[in-house]
Amino acid sequence: EIFHVGLIDQEKAKKTPVKGLLGTEEFFQTTYLDAFNIVLRALKGVSSSTFYSFCDQYKIPEKKLAEILNVHPRTMKKYELEDKPLDPSLGEHLLKLQSLFQKGKDAFGSLENFEFWLKQPFWKQKVKPYDLLETSGGVDIVSDEIQRYLEGYPV
Predict the structure, then answer these.
(1) Do the Cβ atoms of 153 and 144 come closer than 8 Å?
(2) 3-state SS class at 22
(3) pTM score
(4) Which residues does 140 contact at the CB level (< 8 Å), separation at least 6?
């Protein structure tokens, strides 16, 4: 069986065995948003507080996350002060990153292990997963690589 992604909420989440993960069988409670629901949430408006919550939860400096999102930290402060929702493309990118980091943390057992993996070159490549996070499509590629890892393929 493979790791289920795309579940919308806790009620629909399932515990799914993952075979071959670090040589053991582990179970994860999946609550990742699928692409469709991420876009819908982004179009409705993502609060700037999501940005700051992400920084706190995953211990990423605000400046670093802003850099990944291709936005100036002062712009994020402006969104916060004006209590203005993020632009849909920025909100989508942030939600994808949030889902990716949760998936990575679950897949690799800890945030530290996931961050280490992000900084290593892909299997037989020179590019590192971290290098791709600046685009929404890059986040998708990294998520796909984690999925391959969970299915037992070398990444």
Answers:
(1) no
(2) coil
(3) 0.76
(4) 35, 96
